[in-house]
Design brief:
2 copies of one chain form a homodimer. In chain A, the strands form 2 sheets. Chain A has a 6-stranded mixed sheet, sandwiched between helices. Chain A contains 14 helices and 11 strands. Chain A has about 350 residues and is an alpha/beta fold. In chain A, about 40% of the residues lie in helices and about 15% in strands. The interface between A and B is large, with 59 and 59 residues. Chain A binds a DNA duplex (30 and 30 nucleotides) through α3 and α5.
DNA sequence: TGTGAGCAGGAAAACGTTTAACTGTCCAGC
DNA sequence: GCTGGACAGTTAAACGTTTTCCTGCTCACA
C-alpha cells in the first residue's frame, strides 16, 4: 500500500506533516508507480495507455481520494470551472423577489452536472459596486464567464466585460443593440399583449400599469407593449405608476390610487410580489378581487397559485432562461458543443382567479 | 511605457499575442522598474519601501489595471477567498422557500466587503449528491470553508468535513452534540413556546402542528417544544402533520384536516409559505381566518405582512444568522479578528392578524 | 580604516497541474 | 540488417504569485 510513498528530502517531522496534508498528483503517481504526466493524461483521458496502467492509476486516485487542485488547474491555463453572477440589488429586495432564486436554480441545474460552480456576488444598488465586482472577477480570473441579468438603460457592463475579455451572456433584453450574447424567449411581448387583450375582453376600460424601477430596460419595454396593446383598442392607460420591487411601496401606491375617484378597474403589475401587495392593498381598503379590481402579475412565481384568489399572471420561464444562459456561457467557453440552446417557453398569460369582468 | 517589457525568446507574433493577453505581476514590475518581489510586497504591505517606490508601483498597478491572479495566489498557499455553500434541495422547493435567499443575503453582506466570494451549489435532495459536492469543494480546494444549513438527523456532513479538514459552520441546531461550530439565536425555543401561549391564551384547545420534513433536526425539536408547551396547559396536540416544504402538499393536507369533524381551531406551521398555503386552503373551503381558524407561520418572510390577513408568525433573524455564520468561518480562517459574533435576535412571536379568539 | 546596522530591493524556490517534446523498446516489413 | 512506426510512457517547462534568504550600499562610529 503505502510502501511506494516517496520519501522527499525534508526535515524529519515536516514530512510527517506533509503526509497528512493535502494529497497531490505526485502521491498518486508514486502509488501507481508512474509519472505525474501519466496520471494527468489518464484522468483526463488524453494519451493512450494500456488498461492495466489505467486501472492502477484509477485505483490510486480512489485510494488517496485525490482530485486535481482547482488552483493549479486554473493557473496552468485551463479553466476555473466557475461562472460568476453579480446581483446588483440590496439584500432585502433580493429576498422579496424570488425571481432570482428561480433563475439561479435554472443556472445551477446545468452547471452542477458539468462540475461547474456558481460564484455569486450580491452587491448593493450603487452602480460602481457592481462594476468593481465584475472587474475583480475578471482581473483576478476567478471565473470563466459571467451571467448578467436586468440590463439597465445605458448599462456600462457590456463594454466593461468586453474590455475585460470575459465571456458573458445576458438574460433578457439588451439595451440598444449591445453585441453581448443574449438569451430570451421568442415572442417575448406576447404575454403582456395577451394580458391587455384579456382585460379589454372582460370589459375593462380603465387599466393601469405599475412598473418596476425606471432604469431597467424591460420596464420601458413592457410598458410600451402595454400602452400599444391598449392603443389597438383606442384606449390609453388610466395610470402609469412606477414602484420599486419592494412590496411595501407598491402596497401604499395602490392604496392611494384606489382612493381616487378615477381609479382603475384593472391593474397590471411588473411582478407577482407586487401583485400580491396590490391584492392585499385592495382587500385592506375593503375591495374585493376580482369583483372590484382585476389584477395581473408577472413571472408566475409559485406563490401566485397559493393565494386566494389565485393570481392571473404572465408566466415567464425563468428556470428555462437560467438553463439557456448557463449553456450559452458554456458554449462560449467550448465546454459544451455548439448548437441551438434549449427552447425557452415564451411568456404566456395564465388566467386564474384574480381577473374578472369589469364592474358596473 | 512598454519600453521596459521583457522580450522573452519566443516566436515573432506569439509575443504580440502575449501582450494583449492578461497582464501579470511582471508587467507591473517592468513598468515600475522593480522586481516582481517588490511589487508583491508593496501591494500586500509587507516590506518597507520608500514612498517614491511605493508610488511608482501603485501607479503601474493602476495603469495596467492589474490584480493578482486568484489561481496563482491560491496555489501559492494563500487563501481562495471563497466560501462554499451547498443547498441540498430541488430547485423548485428552493424557490418556494425564500428562507435561503435571506440567509444568503446575510452571508454575502459580510463576505462582500471583505472581498470574499460565495460559491453556491444547488444539488438535488439525494444525500450523496450533497456529499459529493462537499468532497469536490474540499479536495479541489475551491473554497476556504463552508457554511452548512439544515442539519439533518444523522447528518454525515460534519464527520465528512472534519475528515476533509474544511472549516465549517452550521446554521441552526446540530444533531446530537456534533462538535462543529454553530451559530444560532439565544433562547431559540422561546418563539415557538410563545406561539403556543398566545393560542392558548386566545382560548384555543384544539391546536395542530404542521411540520416540515422529518429528517431535519429542527423539525423534531420544534415539534417537541410545541408539544411541551401545550402539555404545560394540560393539552396535547390535536393534529401532528408532516408535510414537505412545498406549498401544494401543505395546502391539500390542510384541506383534508379541515374537512374532518375533529378539526383544529388553530394551526402552527413550520414556515410562512406553508402558512400561506394553509391560509389559501382555509379560504378555499369557505373558512375565514382568523374567525374559523387561527394560523401561525414561521420565519417572518416579507410576504407575511403583505397578506390579508397579515400573518402572525415566529420571526427568525435569518439575515443575522447568515451574517454570524459568515463571520464565524472568517474567524476560523483568521481573516477576521476573533471575538464575539454579532447578536442574532432570538426567535420572537409577531402577532398580526391571522390569529384570533377560538370559535364558539 | 574597519565594522556593524539599516536600508532598498533582488534571486530563486515553491505551490500542483498540464502538455509539448522527447526517449527507449519492440516488432513488422523490406 | 535496417528502417519506420507504434507503444508506453518520461522530462521539463510553464502558469503567476509569495516568501525566504540574500546582496549591495550607505553611513555612523570606534
Amino acid at each position: 500500500m503505502g510502501r511506494k510513498d516517496p520519501a522527499f528530502a525534508a526535515g524529519t517531522d515536516t514530512v510527517a506533516q506533509r503526509r497528512t496534508d493535502r494529497v497531490t498528483i505526485s502521491d498518486v503517481a508514486a502509488l501507481a508507480g508512474v509519472s505525474t504526466a501519466a496520471v494527468s493524461k489518464i484522468v483526463n483521458g488524453k494519451g493512450s495507455f494500456p488498461q492495466a496502467t489505467r486501472d492502477r492509476v484509477q485505483r490510486a486516485v480512489v485510494q488517496l481520494n485525490w482530485a486535481p487542485s482547482a488552483a493549479a488547474v486554473a493557473l496552468r491555463g485551463a479553466r476555473t470551472r466557475a461562472i460568476g453572477m453579480v446581483a446588483g440589488r440590496t439584500p432585502d429586495v433580493l429576498n422579496s423577489d424570488p425571481h432570482f432564486a428561480l433563475l439561479i436554480a435554472g443556472i445551477e441545474s446545468e452547471l452542477a452536472p458539468r462540475d461547474h460552480g456558481l460564484l455569486l456576488h450580491i452587491v448593493g444598488e450603487q452602480p460602481d459596486a457592481a462594476e468593481r465586482a465584475y472587474r475583480r472577477l475578471a482581473t483576478e480570473r476567478r471565473v470563466d464567464g459571467v451571467i448578467l441579468t436586468e440590463s439597465r438603460v445605458g448599462d456600462p457592463r457590456f463594454a466593461l466585460l468586453r474590455g475585460l475579455r470575459l465571456p458573458a451572456v445576458l438574460v433578457g433584453t439588451p439595451w440598444q443593440s449591445d453585441p453581448v450574447p443574449t438569451v430570451r424567449a421568442a415572442e417575448q411581448d406576447q404575454g403582456m399583449a395577451d394580458a391587455v387583450e384579456h382585460l379589454v375582453g372582460l370589459g375593462h376600460r380603465r387599466i393601469g400599469y405599475v412598473s418596476g424601477p425606471e432604469d431597467r430596460v424591460h420596464t420601458g419595454r413592457r410598458r410600451a407593449v402595454f400602452t400599444e396593446a391598449l392603443a389597438r383598442h383606442g384606449l390609453s392607460p388610466s395610470h402609469l405608476l412606477a414602484s420599486d420591487f419592494a412590496g411595501q411601496t407598491t402596497g401604499s401606491l395602490v392604496e392611494k390610487v384606489l382612493a381616487t375617484a378615477d381609479r382603475p378597474s384593472a391593474l397590471v403589475l411588473a411582478n407577482d410580489m407586487m401583485a400580491l401587495a396590490a391584492l392585499a392593498a385592495a382587500q385592506r381598503t375593503g375591495r374585493q378581487v376580482p369583483r372590484d379590481l382585476s389584477l395581473i402579475g408577472h413571472d408566475d412565481l409559485p406563490v401566485g397559485h397559493l393565494l386566494h384568489p389565485r393570481l392571473t399572471t404572465v408566466r415567464q420561464d425563468l428556470a428555462g432562461l437560467g438553463r439557456a444562459a448557463a449553456l450559452s456561457v458554456l458554449q462560449q467557453l467550448g465546454e459544451e458543443p455548439a448548437g441551438p440552446l434549449p427552447e425557452v417557453t415564451p411568456p404566456q398569460l395564465v388566467v386564474r382567479e384574480s381577473t374578472g369582468p369589469a364592474p358596473g
